[in-house]
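Protein in question kept in full:
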Amino acid sequence: MSSSVSHTRRLPAAGFCVVTAMGLFVLPRRAPDLPPPYRAWGYPALPAIYIALTALVAAALLVSDATRARVLTGLALVLIGVPVYFIWRRPRVGARQPQETMAAG
């Protein structure tokens, strides 16, 4: 893999990793009554440190003149996918809607 391709993918990959790690904090707040489906070693300190360090690496990639153009290209490619995602999620005409599950009682 060439260096330019590697730099193009670093910022979007770091962004996805940060969003995934942030889920460790969001899920318990959104659904406090559910038992946690995971155990994170060192929670909450270690995931918070990971998020901060990954954000610093992403900022360093954006600040560096040597990597800025390639990193912004990768970020632009990811952002182009956002409207595609929302278009893909739209209900289609004539598509069957999923059946609601019956409440257990």
